[in-house]
Amino acid sequence: MLRSPSRSVRGRLAAAVLGFVLAGCGSPSGEPADGEAESGARTEVTVEPIKAASKLTDTNGTRISLDGEPERIVCLFALCDDILTELGIVPAATNSALLAHPGFLGEEKAKEVDVIPGGFIAPEVEAILSHKPDLVIGLGDTHGKLAPALKGATTFWAMQPETWEDSVGYLRDVAALTGRTGEGEEAEKAFRTKLAEAEKNPSGRTALVIYGSDENFGVAAPETDVAASLFPKIADYPWKSRGVEGSYSLEEILAEGVDVLFVETMSFGDADGKLSEKLADNPLWGKIPAVRDGDVHEVDSEVWAKGRGTRSLGIVLDEATAALR
């Protein structure tokens, strides 16, 4: 099954998009300047300044109001952890394993951050409030039901990212509310620069990102999956969302001639083993060009599927562009 699209109507942070300016800087003669790649001039990116605020309407149209800069933030999904890491903030508690990734805090430092019991779907309200948070950030379609229980005790912010533009918007919003405006601008610029470089040198190879824990896999579509939303401009990515009930068959994937395959193995309960190994039992799997040629890449689902923020997406771009060469 495909990941469910958001039921909310997405807004856009105009400044994040309109402030994105690309300019190629080369030597007057047209030859690459010292230190520049032979393939072209270095890409320069500027971003719109972020203004500190205690009240704002976020990138999806939700009104957020705080009494002051939040000092204790509890994260109920990984985008929150991603954004806070980019801003140089450690959450008071978390509900994801993203911080243990070496691109974030790493295993040892991540152990210092308390984990909210109850799992991703049903984090315990009492445990959340025990950390006396100024702000709790969750995924709207999963944690929105917690809002009534948290009301009056803290501020709950339901985010609903669907594309990388949404993630950049949320980064800017959190930077404004925490007063980490410089860090937010730097993180946005670093990500946009990396994305611009990848888009400047797109691969002609056909790519696919799939996810799951068994043979009932799903295809990550650019309209509903943040990591997949990066792919249309960096590779041939002919996969569209088919809605909540839609799915792709191995026959259809085989027909598209996928050259590079990225696999997100999702672990649920006692499930173990790699998704690519489980799919190997299907005779059609071995006929896919990427499988036949050894170009199947099992990736970290904490980063690729759950991270969704600019730091995670930067890792996705690094790994994807390396594989697509």
UniProtKB/TrEMBL annotation:
A Pfam family that the UniProt record links to this protein: Peripla_BP_2
Secretion signal, residue range per the UniProt entry: 1-23
Intracellular or extracellular location(s): Cell envelope
Gene3D superfamilies in alphabetical order: Nitrogenase molybdenum iron protein domain
Domain of life: Bacteria
GO BP term, pick one: iron coordination entity transport
One Gene Ontology cellular component: outer membrane-bounded periplasmic space
Sorted UniProt keywords: Signal, Transport
Keyword Transport: yes
Domain Fe/B12 periplasmic-binding residue range list: 72-325
Presence of keyword Transport: yes
Family the entry assigns: Belongs to the bacterial solute-binding protein 8 family.
UniProt-recorded name of the protein: Iron complex transport system substrate-binding protein
Organism: Streptomyces pini
